[in-house]
Amino acid sequence: MLAQLEQHATLITNALTQRAKHLLVVLPKADAIGRLDARTPYRSLLEATLARRKKKFADLAKTPLCIDAGGALVAWVVVDGAQSVFEQQTVMRKAVTSLLGEDPVEITIVVFGDAAQRKACASLAVYTAWLNGWQLPKRKKENKNKHLRLIRL
Q1: Element housing 107 (H / E)
Q2: What is the tens place of the pLDDT at every residue in 90-147?
Q3: Adjacent-strand bridge partners of 110
Q4: DSSP secondary-structure letter at 106?
Q5: CA 63, CA 116: separation in Å to the nearest integer?
Q6: Is residue 98 helix, strand or coil?
């Protein structure tokens, strides 16, 4: 059975951010990290990690960033509308599979941007989580059903 989708129209609160164990933050394309929404979860950690790794914010459109944030695994990805659909799906798959490597029961997805960007990015993120959250059967090894059960959006 595919994972259930639990949608919330409001932006994620600080309490929900602290409760999430696997968090995917989907950001719109911006010139610099300073133009991001101030409510972006773990923004200071993102800024510090980008500075430490000597990367630019624009690099998140090619390679997502995944960090352990005090007990929670957080992945940031930038979806660029100018990229092809294949490139958007590829970068989203990389971000989601970095979270799915720990076999989580649920993933929380937070999407930023204007209404059109949020709709497009949310559908892409949920689609990717649904497809990659179900593990195929393994005949040679013990089959442990560790499938994704809940997607919070």
Answers
A1: strand 106-111
A2: 999 999 999 988 888 889 999 988 889 889 999 999 999 988 887 766 666 666 667 7
A3: 25
A4: E
A5: 23
A6: helix
Per-residue model confidence as pLDDT tens digits over 41-91 = 888 888 898 899 999 888 888 999 999 888 889 999 999 888 999 999 999
Task: Report the amino acid identity of residue 78.
Answer: V
Longest dimension (CA), the chain: 50
Q: Which amino acid is at 135?
A: Q
Task: Give the residue from 120, 119, 129 showing the smallest Cα distance to 98.
Answer: 129
The Cα 55–Cα 16 span in angstroms is: 28
CA-based nearest residue to 104, from 150, 66, 136, 41: 150
Question: Under DSSP, is residue 80 helix (H, G, I), strand (E, B) or coil?
Answer: coil
H-assigned helices in the chain: 14-19, 43-52, 85-100, 115-132
Give burial (CB, 10 Å; 0-12/13-18/19+) of 57.
buried
Quote the CA–CA distance of 88 and 127 in Å, as a whole number: 12
